[in-house]
Design goal:
2 copies of one chain form a homodimer. With 412 residues, the first copy, chain A, is α+β, with helices and mostly antiparallel strands. Chain A has 11 helices and 20 strands. Chain A has 3 domains: 34 residues, no CATH class; 99 residues, Immunoglobulins (Immunoglobulin-like, Sandwich); 259 residues, Rossmann fold, CATH 3.40.50. In chain A, helix 1 crosses helix 2 and helix 8 packs across helix 9. The N terminus of chain A is likely disordered. Strand 13 of chain A pairs antiparallel with strand 13 of chain B, so a sheet runs across the interface.
C-alpha cells in the first residue's frame, strides 16, 4: 500500500494532480504511523453479540492484561482486610505480536478500561476516546443496546442537539472570573419566546466544570430524554465547585498542571456563600424562568454536600433538590455561617416547601451510612424526600443513572 | 501516607467527620492509583531553565525512549531515498524503575511527545493533556516564555476570555444538521450594540470542527491577541469541512468510531457549494457585521484549498482570504461547477477587490512547489497577495503561527 502510493507520487509530473496530493497526505500519515509504531488495529471491536475484542500491539512484551469496569471485581487481601480491586484478564499474543482478548457479552453501558503491559497501566493507542477523571485518563467505549437502554441514552443519536458552551462569569464573592459549562437545549436559540428552567449540576471532589459534560454524558442524556419527551427542555449549568480555582486544570493561567484530588476551599463554605453569583449570571445572561419553580440543584458526592447546604442556606430558592451519593456530614471545623444551624435551616427549607428532594445512593457506597443517618434525621423531622437505592458504589456509572432518573422529574 | 489515612478512617466513630470523609475520598484515589500501577510521578517537569524532564515508570521494560517535535529530526534511509523521521532519545532507569531524561533548553512553544516502551508508542500516564490529531492522541506541554512569545500566546493568561460553543446548524445544501464550533470574543454577550466581524477558519484533511480549537489553540491565541489590542474582537467560526460528516468522530450517531484520514466528499465541491448555509446560520444567529468587509475566510492545507475555491466561487463575499500551507491544485476529476473556470473566477475576485489575500507556507512543505506555481499565476495576473514563507513543513506549529500573524491583519 505504502509502496504503491509512493510509486504514484514519484511518477508525478510537474503539476500535482488532486489524486496525487491526496495520496501524499496519506503517505505522511502512513509514514508517521509506521515510524511511531502504529498499525491499523481495531480496538476495541464491539462484536454483533455485544462481546468486545481488545487488541494491543506489543511484540516484545511478556504480559498484557486488560482491566476495566465491566470485569468482575476481585477481593484482594490488605493489612486492613479484604478490598475490592478492578478485575483483570490476560490477553494472548498472535504471531504478529498483537495481543487480544474477547469479553463475554456486555450489557448496554459506557465502560472504561486500560491495558496493563508488563505491570504498567497504559491507554489503548487505537482508541481515541479518552476521558479524564481527576489525574487519570482512561479509554471508554459504549455498548449501545436497544432504544431507551443506558448505552442508547449515553450515545449521540439522530435527535435535535443542544449547544454546549464554555464561558467565563464574574464572581464578586470569590473575587475572580471563573469558567462554567452551560448546556442549552435544542431550540433554545430559535424559540425566543420561551423562558427555560435551569438545573444547576455540581461535580464531586477532584472534579470541575468539565466533569459532568465529559464523564456524566450530560449533553447526550438530556438531548435524548428531551427528544423522547421524557424530560422538559431545560438549561443545565455546570459550574466549578472548587472555590480556589478559576477553571479546570489546563484552562486557567496556572497552565497545564497535574490535577489533584485535594484542593483548598472546596467544603469550607466559600462556594455556597458565593453561589448566587452563578445564579445571577445565569439569570441575566440566559432566557430563564427566574423563580423557585424554575430552579433545580443537584450534585454528586461533594456536589451533593454543596446542593444540600446551598438549598437550605437559601431556603426558598430551589423547588428541586438532588443529592447523588452525597457527602452528608456536619462540618465540625468549618467556621462559615453556611454551616450554622443545620437543623433549623433544614426545617425552614421544609416549611417553605419544595416539589422534590431526591436522594440516590449505591448499596456499597462508603457514604451509605452517613446518608442513612441523614434520612433518619429527615424522617424524624417528617421532611419529605424520594429515595433511590441502587447497586454499586461511589462511581460514575451510578451518577449517570441518577441524572437519567432525576431529570425527567423536574419542572413538571 | 496511605497507611496514615486508613488508620484515621479505621479510628472513626459512628459519625463521619468532614476531615475523615475527605480522607476517605483520597483513599479511593490512592488505592486505585496503587492498584492500577500509578505513582505520583511528575512528567513532564518544566525546569526553571526551560529544560524539560520526562519520567516513565516501567520497572521491567528493556528500553524506554522519548520522541517529540522538539527533538532534531533524523534522516532515515528508505528505498525511495532519505526521509525525515521524528528524533528519539533514550531514557535511563533508576533503582525504583522510573526512567527519565532531561532535554536541552527549549524555546517557547506548544510541543507534542510520546514515549516508546520496548518499541511501542504509549502516552504519558502522568500528563492528562492530550490532543487528538486524526486517529492519534499525543501528549502536549507548553514552554511559556516571555510575554508575546509563542508559548505565551498559546497559554491561558489572566485576560478576558471568549466563549467557545459547540452547536448544530442546519445545512439544506448537504441535507443534514451539522456540528460547528464557534468562538465569540470576551464582551460579545454584554456589548449588545456592537456587530462583530467573522473569521471562517477551516481545517485540513483528517480534521473536523475540533481541530482548530484543540490543535490550533484558537481561543487562547485570540483571547491574547485581542487583550493586547493586536487583533480586533472577532467571532471565529470553525465548521466541519468533510461534507459527508455530520460531526467530528464520536460526536455523531456513528458512535465512537476510529477516525480516518481519508473521507468521501472532502474536495469534490460539495462543501464549497453549501458553504453559504454556514454563513447564513452565523449571520442569523450572531450579532455580526454581515457584509464583505466583516467576513474573512482562511484554512490550512485542504482548508486552504476550500478557502481559495469558496472565496473565488463567491467572488464578492470575503474581504480577507488566508491560505495556510494550502493544497492549491486544479481538480481534474471533480465535476462540480465550483471548479469550472478557475482563472476566470479568480480574475473576477481580483476585479471585485479585497483587502488581503494572505498565503503562508513552510520551506520544506511538500506543497511548496504547487504554492509557488499558484503565486506565479497570481503574479502573471497582477493579483495582489501577501506572502509569508516560514521554516518547517506541513505541521500545526506553522498553522498556529500563521493564525497568530493573520488575525491581527483583519478588519482594520
Amino acid at each position: 500500500m505504502v509502496r504503491y502510493i509512493l510509486i504514484t507520487i514519484y511518477n508525478m509530473k510537474k503539476q500535482l494532480s488532486l489524486l496525487a496530493a491526496l495520496l501524499l497526505l496519506s503517505v505522511c500519515t502512513f509514514a508517521q504511523q509506521a515510524l511511531w509504531g502504529g498499525a491499523n488495529i481495531i480496538s476495541p471491536e464491539i462484536n454483533n453479540d455485544n462481546t468486545v475484542t481488545f487488541r494491543y500491539l506489543a511484540p516484545v512484551a511478556d504480559s498484557v492484561q486488560l482491566t476495566g469496569d465491566f470485569l468482575p471485581t476481585v477481593k484482594v487481601k490488605t493489612q486492613w482486610g479484604p478490598m475490592d480491586a478492578p478485575g483483570k484478564v490476560n490477553l494472548t499474543k498472535d504471531d504478529k505480536g498483537v495481543w487480544s482478548v474477547t469479553t463475554s457479552k456486555l450489557e448496554p453501558e459506557l465502560y472504561s478500561y486500560s491495558f496493563i503491559v508488563d505491570g504498567v497501566k497504559v491507554t489503548d493507542p487505537n482508541n481515541v476516546y479518552l476521558i479524564r477523571d481527576v489525574a487519570s485518563v482512561t479509554n471508554v467505549f459504549i455498548i449501545k443496546g436497544d432504544k431507551g437502554s443506558k448505552g442508547d441514552l449515553y450515545s449521540v443519536n439522530n435527535v435535535p442537539h443542544g449547544t454546549v458552551a464554555r464561558r467565563w462569569y464574574d464572581s464578586p464573592g470569590l473575587g475572580m472570573k471563573r469558567r462554567i459549562t452551560v448546556y442549552t437545549p435544542a431550540g433554545y436559540e430559535a424559540d425566543t419566546r420561551t423562558k427555560y428552567p435551569v438545573l444547576y449540576l455540581l461535580h464531586g471532589m477532584g472534579g470541575d466544570e468539565e466533569a459532568w459534560i465529559n464523564l456524566g454524558r450530560t449533553a447526550q442524556i438530556l438531548d435524548n430524554l428531551i427528544a423522547e419527551g421524557k424530560a422538559v427542555p431545560m438549561i443545565i449549568v455546570m459550574p466549578n465547585g472548587n472555590a480556589a480555582q478559576e477553571a479546570a486544570p489546563g484552562e486557567s493561567s496556572l497552565g497545564l498542571v497535574k490535577p489533584t484530588m485535594m484542593l483548598p476551599k472546596t467544603m469550607d463554605g466559600a462556594y455556597e456563600e458565593s453561589f448566587m453569583d452563578i445564579v445571577k449570571f445565569v439569570e441575566s445572561n440566559y432566557r430563564v424562568k427566574a423563580d423557585k419553580s424554575g430552579r433545580a440543584i443537584a450534585g454528586l458526592s461533594m456536589g451533593g454536600f454543596h446542593s444540600c447546604h446551598i438549598s437550605r442556606y437559601y431556603p426558598n430558592t430551589f423547588d428541586y433538590i438532588g443529592l447523588f451519593s452525597p457527602a452528608i456530614m456536619p462540618n465540625e471545623k468549618a467556621t462559615s455561617k453556611v454551616y450554622a444551624d443545620f437543623d433549623g435551616t433544614l426545617k425552614k427549607q421544609m416549611d417553605n416547601g419544595y416539589k422534590l428532594y431526591w436522594i440516590g445512593i449505591g448499596k456499597t457506597d462508603f457514604l451509605y451510612k452517613s446518608v442513612a443517618d441523614f434520612r433518619a434525621k429527615m424522617d424524624a423531622m417528617k421532611m419529605p424526600y424520594t429515595y433511590r437505592e441502587s447497586e454499586g458504589g461511589h462511581i460514575w456509572v451510578n451518577w449517570r443513572i441518577y441524572l437519567s432518573e432525576f431529570a425527567p422529574l423536574l419542572f413538571k
